[in-house]
Amino acid sequence: MSLRQHAIQLIATYLGYFLASTLCLHFFPGSAGLWAATILAITAALVAWHFNRQLVIPTAVEAPGVSPAQVQVGWGLGGIAIVLVAELIGTKLSSWLFLQPASRQPLAALMAAITTTPAYALAAVVALPVLEELVFRRVVFGNLAGVTGTFGAAVISGLLFGFATDPAHWLTATLVGIVYSYLYHATGSVNAPLIAHIGTIALTLGYAFTH
């Protein structure tokens, strides 16, 4: 499989999930829609992972070499702290530049969805991070790094990630996306940002539900 075919397959999978889940949540509000969105997210993540495993050609980020598994895990776990700092900086910058007050609405909405349909936690914590890391990091950042350079690719992929995942707080989400790109670049493996992504969401939700 070529890098172009790989990119088309993963982006199509992501867009298909995004459209289908949006329609399900619109026409079937409540538990039914959340169950449908959960099934769609898990299915899309599995399909994307299958396509990803078929790619044997390294991206521009992976070409210099891939770190050992223990290094990937170390960067991933350490990356959780970096992501949390990036979120704090993004919130402060949004307040200063755009007079945007800090908001817990997205987290509250996610908690409400999980309370209504606990299975949705699997989609939010695991399936969506898998899908997003494969698309925004391995496809977008991984392919653009050889064209625009690492910094340009990180900014572009970060902006796309920010507007796709949290347009209301795009600056914070963009900074988080740039951190994930850095973790990918530092290890040559998408596993590092994936660990950080899953860990950050799990930690945030765990803290929110226990406090």
Automatic annotation (TrEMBL):
Entry keyword Calcium: no
Pfam family, one: Rce1-like
A GO BP annotation: proteolysis
Annotated keywords: Hydrolase, Membrane, Protease, Transmembrane, Transmembrane helix
GO MF annotation: an example: endopeptidase activity
Spans through the membrane: 7-28, 34-52, 73-95, 107-128, 140-161, 167-183, 190-209
Domain CAAX prenyl protease 2/Lysostaphin resistance protein A-like: from-to ranges: 118-199
Record-stated family: Belongs to the UPF0177 family.
Name of this chain's protein: Metal-dependent membrane protease
Annotated organism of origin: Lacticaseibacillus nasuensis JCM 17158
Organism lineage: Bacteria, Bacillati, Bacillota, Bacilli, Lactobacillales
